[in-house]
Design a protein that fits this description.
Elements lengths: L3 E7 L4 E7 L5 H11 L9 E5 L2 E2 L16 E7 L7
């Protein structure tokens, strides 16, 4: 299987991460890899992944199941917004 190149915008770091993932990679794996690459230290459970404006389920769904195609843009953002002080 050929890897799928994706672009993941991690909003906490305001950085775009490029990943090459197998079509069988889980959505959760994508999120964890993107957060690690962006050096985000908060737990991955506090974040969600969006694709084409909708949240992707993190159960047994793979990125291929979610319809992610080559060079797709995804967003990883916090589930709850942090207050600004």
């Amino acid at each position: 299987m050929n890897p799928i190149p994706v672009r993941v915008m991690v909003l906490d770091a305001w950085d775009e991460i490029r990943l090459d993932l197998a079509p069988t990679a889980l959505v959760r794996d994508l999120k964890i890899q993107a957060l690690q690459a962006a050096r985000v230290r908060r737990p991955a459970d506090q974040y969600l992944v969006k694709f084409r404006g909708a949240e992707l389920a993190e159960g047994p769904e793979t990125i291929a199941d979610a319809g992610v195609v080559a060079n797709a843009g995804l967003i990883v953002l916090a589930r709850a917004r942090l207050p600004v002080r």
